[in-house]
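ok trying again, last paste got cut off:
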Amino acid sequence: MRKKMLTSCFLHGFLVFLCFMKMSSPAKGQFCGKRLTAGRWTSYGNCNGTKLKYLRTNLKALAKAEELKKLRAAGLCGVMYLENCFFVKVKGAGSTDQNAADRLCNESGASLGDIYSLKQFEDLAEYARNLLTSIYFRSHKSAGFKTGMTYDSQNGTIYLSDGKKAPFSRWKALYKMPPPSSRKKYITMVVHKAEKKSRDGFDVRNFTMENHGPLCQLPAYGSLN
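nice, full thing came through this time. structure:
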């Protein structure tokens, strides 16, 4: 009887162990465990903290998704690029000089935005165009949005807001570049109505020249990065 009970307990424990191993064996490449191979128990996967790392990664991904959802709902993430959210504030023609543009971004916890690539520029232009109604374009040929970038007319170079050389530039169609003596230095993103979008691009304005609003950027995930 005792032998039978011991055998039963052993089998029960063995089955519980197998169930535990099965439950802790998710998709291929995740977690680790042991399995019976040719009559011997062998390890599989990476057992050096993989379970904890996997759980942390998933929790962080969920937190990031929730943070991004909040920013988009608040209108603070029209375009996502390099883990930064970009958005424009449309304030009306001739209502925003460089000081006002900077202040408007700061009110949302953001700073004036930079443009790093053609893909980002095209996404931003399309996003901004969709915010401007067809009624707006009946009385305006284009809309300009202040950026954080500057132009050095002495060497013909565009700089990002952190002082580094910009990796991308696109001047608006038929734009006449400022002469080396020009005091204009602030890059504006100019957006046209859909049928004229091939004309979209940059121009350069001075500090007080007013635009339609700012292009702003802020980290998409804040302290979650």
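cool. Confidence is low (pLDDT under 50) at residues 1-29. The first helix runs from residue 2 to 23.
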